[in-house]
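Incident review: delayed structure delivery

Summary: a single-chain prediction request sat in the queue longer than the usual turnaround. Root cause was a stuck worker, restarted by the on-call engineer. No data loss occurred. The affected request and its eventual output are reproduced below so the record is complete for anyone auditing the incident later.

Affected input:
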Amino acid sequence: INAESWGMSVSSESRASFDAWRPSLFSRAQHILRTVFPAKALEIEAYRETEPVLQTSFWESLSHKESSKEQKEEHARKRRKTDENKSSVDGASPFVDSAANASFVTLIARLKKEIIELLGYLSVLKTWIQLHIPRIEDGGNFGVEVQEEALGELTKEEIRTQYALEDAEKYHIARGKMMTKIAKYPGLADYRHSLRELDEREWVSMRARVLSLRNSYLLLNDHLSKNYALLQAPRGTSDRTATTSVL
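Output delivered after worker restart:
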């Protein structure tokens, strides 16, 4: 067998494999849209309502405990000698330094998992729509415009989701720098207050991210389901290249 015939054989086999793979991709996209998205929306809503760290009472509890500790620490500092106070790092709030951050690390890990999972679904849906875009012709392009709008929404969500991954890293870097300042200047209350503000902003952001994830599943499912027929066959049944809609 010469190289040319070998190359043609591989090309034919690859084409056959590709043609066999397309329907499985389309079926997976249908399953994501019909089953996975509604289930994920309900799952995240249940998590939002039951996760203790996401409840308002969590931060109120932190603030109250931290305030009590700071009052005790301030009273104790006044009774220490100056040299002892300078050589210790008791000015940093132990509760904020450990308890709040430990809770956030667990929640951030869960959010990362959810974000990576959503990115995978978005990739499948984008590919599904792109493979249904027909060749360019004059007229009858309304369905193609619907496809392009849907792709735009999926791309926007992809970008927003990727930014959410970066936010977690930025929080840890900022917190590490603030902890360094507190260790260096233990008697300076402003740094401790700044750390508390940083943790509170991150807590608010995490609550917003969870809500955003839920809404992403809800709104994308609603938008894509309503336009499913045009997304799959933008110029009518004659252009249909996948299995019949199951939605």
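Verification: The two ends are 49 Å apart (CA to CA).
Action items: add queue-age alerting; document worker restart procedure.
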